[in-house]
Amino acid sequence: MRILSEYSSPLAQFRRERIQDTVVFFGSARTPSPEDLQREQELAAGKSDDTAQSARKVPLDGETAQEMVQYYQDARKLAHLLTDWSLSLKYPRHRFVVTSGGGPGIMEAANRGAYEAGGKTIGLNIRLPFEQEPNRYITPALNFEFHYFFMRKYWFAYLAKALVVFPGGFGTLDEMFEILTLSQTNKLAKKIGIVVYGSSYWKQVINLDALVQKGAISAADRELFQFADTPEEAFALLRDGLIHNHLEREHLAPGAEIEVPEIAHTRR
Q1: What distance, in Å, lies between the first and last C-alpha atoms of the chain?
Q2: What are 208-256's pLDDT values in tens digits?
Q3: Three-state DSSP class for residue 109
């Protein structure tokens, strides 16, 4: 019954809110916002004793902290650019709605950028013993809390038309490779464009090209994703992919009614 409710309840809510499809942002919940970094600096300098406000679980040196804060700001800007563009599309349903895991860090940055652009934004939260509290930028009617990881992953995958992967840890890697596997095996009938953000980070963390060299994946599999290093570059890749793979291929006129949300079917 719980599994069924975690399918039917979000489906009904997406229909009520007229959500047609999404763009999903993955990334670390531990990425500090500028406000988080300022609080940590005040704590380190003894100007504040509010340790409960510190978002970091593992201390970062100054240079690394600034690098991670920049990723937060880049995700925020990219979500703003994407939402601005999606709001300009003349469709009766909400297209390419920015979606995150609903928590802090990169998830908060994505929801924040979309919120600041004036668009709806989705948070697919999950109950965890730490880190995972809903951020305040999620559209209230689109703030979900899941018990099961696999049901949460279902809603990530089956509404998405594109995916952006910011620097992250185990959870980010898990989500990224799951979507890559679905794309590699042609299990999704609709193409999902995948942008991996921060080439220097990812090339240091994992050597994806070595998978081709060792024969673990084909050269064509390496083309399932593209790297980007600025919000503008990532936005151009996302926009061009969404137009080419979806908007140009849709047979319905922009004003035509379709059933929402537009869930990608699994190939047989």
Answers
A1: 26
A2: 889 999 999 999 999 999 999 999 999 999 999 999 999 987 755 555 5
A3: helix
pLDDT value, residue 236: 98
Residue 90's pLDDT band, with cuts at 50, 70 and 90, is confident
Q: Which residues lie below 8 Å from residue 255, measured CB to CB, with a gap of 6+?
A: 90, 91, 92
- In contact, 191 and 245? CB cutoff 8 Å: yes
Residue 92 near residue 257, CB atoms below 8 Å: yes
- The more confident residue out of 130 and 247 is 247
Q: Taking Cα atoms as reference points, which of 19, 217, 236 lies closest to residue 123?
A: 19
Residue type, 236: A
Torsion sign, CA atoms 51, 55, 56, 57: positive
Structure tokens given for 75: 């995700």
Which residue shows structure tokens 């069924």? 4
Q: Are 195 and 110 in contact (CB under 8 A)?
A: no
Query: Residue 167 carries which DSSP code?
Result: S
pTM for the complete prediction?
Answer: 0.89
Return phi, psi of residue 210, to 5°: -65, -25
92-105 confidence digits (pLDDT tens): 999 999 999 999 99
Q: pLDDT of 17-30, one tens digit each?
A: 999 999 999 999 99
Tokens 């035509």 -> residue: 256
- Burial state string for 162-197 with b = 16 or more CB within 10 A and e = fewer than 16: bbbbbbbeebbeebbeebbebbeeeebebbbbbbbb
CA distance 79 to 119: 10
